[in-house]
């Protein structure tokens, strides 16, 4: 194989991955930042740690998720993904996020207490109450992830929350993936608390990946 053909093939691979320059006749790939799998994994863990620090206040979990999701979107798109931009998003939305964070924390606490009391056998029909409690926690988690994914400094938290029903209706399967990500985060955290770092990072990546999955499906159908 000639040197020119080898160079052409290498350039074509890079173009298709989205990481290299455009080559004539080759459609460039999307999300070039996601092509380096080990690099993406490292970024998920790094942003998971940063999100965990912000989420220590509990009521600050929404802005931790939103800032982490925006950071990973920039990273997979090979845009500017400096850590400083994450902290800028946190500063821009942390106070207004309390309108979501405080009610979400209260609802989660009430549902958790219901599940614990139901599991103790102190209430008649405890199993049904526990199922309702777990379902409520799952719905709350999906809504929180969807709202965090919709948030931007320009839209604000009220607009992000209002967008949740339309997001779920537009992609019910995507909502199921978000539910799976929430369950995964809960399970790994229950198994070993420090794994929350990886879990929340993966949950943020799921919010980024679900719409990309939908776009690819539309592209292939066309």
Automatic annotation (TrEMBL):
Protein's UniProt name = DUF4013 domain-containing protein
Transmembrane helix: present as a keyword of the record?
Answer: yes
Biased composition regions of type Basic and acidic residues, renumbered to the chain: 1-16
**Species of the source:** Microbacterium hydrocarbonoxydans
Say yes or no: keyword Membrane present. yes
Q: Which residues cross the membrane?
A: 47-69, 90-116, 128-151, 190-210
Spans annotated as Disordered: 1-28
Q: Which UniProt keywords apply?
A: Membrane, Transmembrane, Transmembrane helix
